[in-house]
């Protein structure tokens, strides 16, 4: 299984924002569908969150919580997704969005 | 007694002076630390207020406008400052009785993050005026709880016995 490193700032945008691609070119949906989801289907992915102008919860929820809504099993996400961030609030929230969505789907 | 003082008087005087200096030095360090943490908390409260103001600014503009996008980025940047300052408070040595306040601050910070940077300023989701009002009210309540938690932490660390 391959291991890939994704830097949001270098590989996507330094100003990620918004939930849906229709309204924001650098949205959570765009990041998930064009970069994150294909990479996670291949193997282990480390996402580096540093280097951007910050994140909104709508971007993070759509990008990461949206993985579950788009058919990736919660267990697969837990096993394959690694987060690197100097801001623990982002990584803590991302895991919370993933777990909330996993609970919602399981209910 | 006189013989004892004659023999050890100088040593006793030196020991008293050293002990006094140590107490005075500890108190001075404690005062400095108190000032630093107080300043951090004051900066944090300003950042919380800027986030609330940024969301209000965002609400004034057409949701797909450049001004709304700039206000949204400004809110995200204020959150970076907020997180860095809060990390300093979380990571500094503290009394164990303050742990409960640090956790309370963290919970409110995360709630505040969700409310301030979510659908209110996302622009993708069309909210009714009532929904906006409810979210803004909840955001302000959470901001007040966050600030209150910071003050409780401060008093727990420096003013309680």
What percentage of the residues of chain A does DSSP assign to strands (E)? Answer: 5-15%
- Low-pLDDT residue spans of chain A: none
Strands across the major sheet of chain A, in which order? 1-2-3
Mind telling me the C-alpha Rg of chain A?
13 Å
Order of helices and strands of chain A: EHHEHHEH
- Main β-sheet description of chain B: none
pLDDT < 50 runs, ≥5 residues of chain B: none
Quickly count the domains of chain B.
1
Distance between the termini of chain A: 31 Å
Name the structural class of chain A: alpha/beta
State the shape of chain B: rod-shaped
Mean pLDDT of chain B: 87
Give the % helix of chain A.
Answer: 40-55%
Q: Estimate the helix proportion of chain B, in percent.
A: over 70%
Greatest contact between two chains: A-B, 22 and 25 residues
Q: What is the number of independent domains of chain A? A: 1
């Amino acid at each position: 299984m391959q291991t890939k490193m994704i830097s949001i700032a270098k590989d996507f945008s330094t100003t990620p924002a918004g939930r849906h691609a229709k309204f924001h070119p650098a949205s959570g949906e765009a990041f998930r569908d064009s970069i994150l989801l294909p990479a996670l289907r291949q193997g282990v992915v480390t996402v580096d969150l540093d280097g951007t102008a910050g994140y909104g919860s709508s971007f993070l929820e759509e990008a990461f919580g949206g993985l579950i809504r788009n058919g990736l099993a919660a267990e697969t996400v837990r096993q394959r997704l690694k987060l690197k961030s100097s801001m623990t609030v982002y990584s803590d929230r991302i895991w919370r969005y993933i777990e909330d969505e996993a609970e919602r789907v399981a209910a | 007694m006189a013989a004892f003082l004659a023999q050890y008087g100088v040593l006793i005087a030196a020991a008293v002076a050293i002990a006094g200096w140590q107490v005075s030095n500890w108190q001075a360090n404690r005062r400095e630390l108190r000032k630093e943490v107080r300043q951090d908390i004051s900066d944090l409260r300003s950042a919380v207020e800027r986030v609330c103001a940024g969301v209000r600014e965002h609400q004034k503009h057409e949701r797909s406008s450049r001004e709304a996008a700039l206000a949204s980025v400004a809110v995200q940047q204020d959150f970076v400052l907020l997180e860095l300052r809060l990390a300093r408070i979380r990571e500094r040595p503290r009394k164990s009785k303050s742990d409960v306040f640090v956790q309370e601050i963290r919970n409110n910070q995360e709630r505040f993050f969700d409310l301030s940077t979510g659908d209110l300023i996302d622009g993708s989701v069309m909210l009714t005026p009532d929904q906006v009002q409810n979210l803004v009210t909840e955001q302000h309540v959470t901001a007040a709880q966050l600030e209150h938690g910071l003050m409780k932490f401060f008093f727990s660390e420096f003013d309680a016995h």
